[in-house]
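Collaborator request, handled under Task 6.
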Amino acid sequence: MDRRLKILFHILFWTFSYWVLNMAFAFEHIEIMETEAGREELYLRDFRLLPLVSILFVGKVVSAYATIAWIIPVFFRRRNSWSLAGYTVGLVAAVLLLELLFVALGQSAWEVITFERYWQLGKFNALFFLIYYCAATGYAMAEHWWRGEQLRQALIQENLRTELDFLKSQINPHFFFNTLNNLHALAARSEAPLLSQGLEQLSQLMRYMLYESKVERVPLEKELSYLSSFIELHKLRFDESDDLTVALYRKGSVEQCRIAPLLLIPFLENAFKHGVRWDESCFIRIDMEVEEEKVLRFRIVNRYFEDSGQAMDVQSGIGLQNVRRRLELLYPDRHHLEIGRKGPNFEVLLTINLDEL
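Structure tokens returned to the collaborator:
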């Protein structure tokens, strides 16, 4: 509903309510008038209780908006019926006490009220309070439902848009893989084994990144295979005359563990980015060990170069920042990460408890 229409609706509702309250609480009495035609009885309303009605009306307005803006939202946040009951009782008690206080202070204005009439007014007041509270509760719940329905529809539209975007995005990977296969076949026919090998490794990497890593956990064996393909692809940049050694060692029951996909690759990328040079003697050593109770110890060591910026990348590099955040989300209180220079080398040591039980 438009904001201006909502405000207009509220004004009309409370204006009508104020009129109804005045009519309900007005005295009715009969006056007899002598006319030429004889005696006539006139039914009149006495609005001497207008100040009292105004006080009661303000109490109803306050209680209604307190219900809409505070009590019902608290109930939906906490989902606790006892909280709803407690806040309701507190609101009723506070409003009624304030009403009684103002009535007592202005008692001289309506001393004409008899006990029977006062009791009748009290019953009317309680009835109207119940009516307004139920109306406010219904209004607040309907508004909450409407907002939830709008959010649900927005989420449905967003999911549909995301699904369409995903289906569109599948066109590019399929085209990419078909092109890789064509280049691989061309390289094989052209007797270019290194090119053929590189295209095959790249195809395996892309397939793992785009398809096999869409699940929450993958076998640690697959993650290890991905690291191996990544290493082989990077080694194609070097020939036998280059002084580069890359070694990957595994120990323990790797095949019995599962891990979040693509979690270890940023550390290996960082080692190749900063720890490898053509004109220097370089090495990268990767140790992957699964200890008892599925505790993974993953260690990467590479030669440290002063001008490589590797130490700076630990603090400001986007890739390492992202993997730190992923570790905090995926393995809270179940991992330990140390990154830094140790002597002439740069070392990463990650320990993760992979036991999901």
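The cover message to the collaborator said: "The first strand starts at residue 27 and ends at 35. The chain has two domains: 3-166, 240-353. Please let us know whether this matches your experimental observations."
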